[in-house]
């Protein structure tokens, strides 16, 4: 390899042609040049060992320190930790062998928490998100990445990566269903609301007709107290609201309401709001005029209901009455004032707005009228009140989390002695000139000479001050201009990334909750977050962290200092982490359908819950009007029974739609026949709207055509029963196709059992049709006679609900063949999606002919 001589034109280096650039620019050419240079001054035998040792510190190691891989529904992520400081600069190729050919991953990136620490390399292979990639293809790609991944550097060295079985992880449904941070706040409120409903329902269902007045009063008091889960979530949400900074609430309220509108109503078409209304020009004397001006702080197109707007206006008036500066924009060089929090000045919401609203709702729900029409009116009013408070709290929290860059930092001042130093020379000459001129008029008089000296001194001081002010303004303008160039655009994600850099935390590619690492750092100080010494402690920690990054720091400490608000924001992030962790602790499974469709019976059999936990709405007086839920002991699932989809008032259906969004798995129940078969129309409309809205929604769902066992069965002609079952199922499919269109492709999560990793259940994206998700179903096929319990959970001598042995055995045969679903079929489906959510396999599916007493 020979170096090409650098040519020049008029004393300037000439631009080389493409071929020499490609030939002589690579690192291997520089290495060749270094070797040639050393060979000139040293003997090869003397330096060869040292040269190889130097190269060993630059090139990739033979193997990484650790390696892990996790399979998601849309990607395979492989994470490597290695001692290779220059990995980002020397890696030239990443590949693996797939189908006897080299395959290139979709992307790879590097991250380093400490300047002298190991490097984390993340390699991502995207999977097809349209459901066309089969499970064998996914496993083949996973196996290829695990066993044949090769990373080559510019020195010609290749690092082979091998991932052991124990380091392979398959993402669970909880990981894949994790909402974004801002959406998680909404989901936490919905979960707390639903849990409080279920808490009151359990109290009411436990009552008997013979209950005493004292017990009724005690029950009402219990209904007015929060359930354990509602208390946990609402206390964290209320802490976020109570610690909000009023001035920032006002400044960011238009944008927060815009975000709330997007998250709650799915409105992605509206434009982001403009800058804050300048409240410094609001009328100071006329109360009515000022009230109208304060109302302008809430955008007209914010999508607020009457209740939300009224609560926000009352809050703004409380701010204004406490201190009118709360409504005024903050100057860029000012700290965000943390001395006053929302709970100190707001009488409308107070310290526990969400918890107090749920407590009031629980008390009113318990006391709700037994008259159906009156109860529906009360439900409408009470539910709307809760949802208004939820939106207000959500908006207030977002004003704090979605703060701009200027809230996190404060622009530094230049060195103050500079302007005065610049004014020394003008001061000296101005004073000397003034004294000389005044002394010439004074003559030989000592008194007038002294006055001339004093006059010269004061004139010099004036010149000094004026010069300093001019120079200060010039330097300040230059400093501010340079600071603006160092300014970075910050949103919630960017602020989180900067904070992790300051704390030297690598972003773990497998963390579904990114706030967890920060929350663990702050956990010990969370109870004293508002104390001055706590704020100073973590403010210094952030500053020291950025200083340790040197030139790689995203924040220039020469132009900016860390503000107190950054610490307050950190503790808000820690509380958000608590919420998201609580939500991720369970899988939410909901059953929805019209009254008397068999939801309560299905849930009782699926979960093994005691009889009466899920009340049946079998008549007009006892219709299901509120959500019921069941948390099975030692299980990670919460099962919910939703209000009847055929209720005459839309309020109950709206509540069901709202609460449906908290679910990870949805089961729709459609009646096959019976006294309320007409109730199929509303639930089919609900299912149609649900499927149409599934643009990015991959939640698994199934539609059960229930009570097929009620169809006529003749032992002499069982095929007729089979045809009737198929016709009823096909009828539901046809009605849905008429609403949706014939060629409906449904993308949703599926579960497949594989022999990989410690939890061998692969959640992947599958393609389904309506024929795949609509199933004929019978609860009675595997139900005990006396109570709604699955036969697999009962002793062998338990009698069957379906007494006719031939009919029960025929349903057993159809279930074994997959033509009819029963409780064992649904349990198996749920068990695959979320292991441990339903009782483990007991005696299995039972036949009266084969296993009956």
From TrEMBL:
What is an example of a GO molecular function annotated in this UniProt entry? GTP binding
The keyword Transmembrane belongs to this UniProt entry's keyword annotation: yes
Which keywords, in A-to-Z order, does the entry hold? Answer: Membrane, Transmembrane, Transmembrane helix
* Keyword Transmembrane attributed: yes
**Residue ranges annotated for the G domain, each copy included:** 589-707
Q: Which InterPro entries did the record assign?
A: GTP-bd (IPR006073), P-loop_NTPase (IPR027417)
- Protein name in the entry: G domain-containing protein
Highest taxon of source: Eukaryota
The taxonomic lineage of its organism, from the top, reads: Eukaryota, Fungi, Dikarya, Basidiomycota, Ustilaginomycotina
Record organism: Acaromyces ingoldii
Q: Where are the transmembrane segments?
A: 447-475
